[in-house]
Amino acid sequence: MINKSKINECPIRKSLQVLGGKWTILLLMVLETPKRYGELKKAVPEITEKMLIQKLRLLEKGQFVVRKDYQEIPPKVEYSLTKLGKETLKIIPILRDIGNRL
User: Fold this and answer.
1) Which helix (H) or strand (E) is 38 found in, with range?
2) Beta 77-81 vs 65-69: how paired, if at all?
3) Is the Cβ–Cβ distance between 41 and 61 less than 8 Å?
4) Domain 4-101: which topology?
5) So where are the chain's domains?
6) CA 40 to CA 17: how far, in whole Å?
7) 61-97: b (≥16 Cβ within 10 Å) or e
8) Phi, psi dihedral angles at 67 (to 5 degrees)
């Protein structure tokens, strides 16, 4: 019998919970340089505002992205990659190569 707690502890499963999905890798690529929310929305116009907010929060919770609030009027918030987020960018060429082979 498979131990379900072991499956939930699987590091690959944990990674895919954050990195899986239609928009996550694309957002990481766009965030190669720091961006404000409006810049992210323009860079990925197909994403809904709700989904963009959800993905940014998930990436922030997973420590791939850091959110900096400048406490200004009008509000200024900037998103940038953490060290983990930058390291994750290294998998993109590998994923591209796999996709090209399919």
Assistant:
1) helix 37-43
2) antiparallel
3) no
4) Arc Repressor Mutant, subunit A (1.10.10)
5) 4-101
6) 22
7) ebebbbeeeeeeeeeeeebebbeebeebeeeeeeeee
8) -110, 125
Q: What DSSP string describes 48-90?
A: -HHHHHHHHHHHHHTTSEEEEE---SS--EEEEE-HHHHHHGG
Average pLDDT of the residues in 35-51: 95
Q: Quick check: 68 and 31 in contact, CB under 8 A?
A: no
pLDDT per residue as tens digits for the range 67-76? 999 888 888 8
Q: Does residue 10 register a pLDDT over 90?
A: no
Please compute, for residue 64, the number of CA atoms within 13 A of its CA located in the half-sphere on the CB side.
23
Q: For residue 77, what are the β-bridge partners?
A: 69
- Sign of torsion over alpha carbons 37, 96, 99, 60: negative
Determine how β-strand 35-36 pairs with β-strand 65-69.
unpaired
Take residue 3 and report the two structure tokens written for it: 């131990």
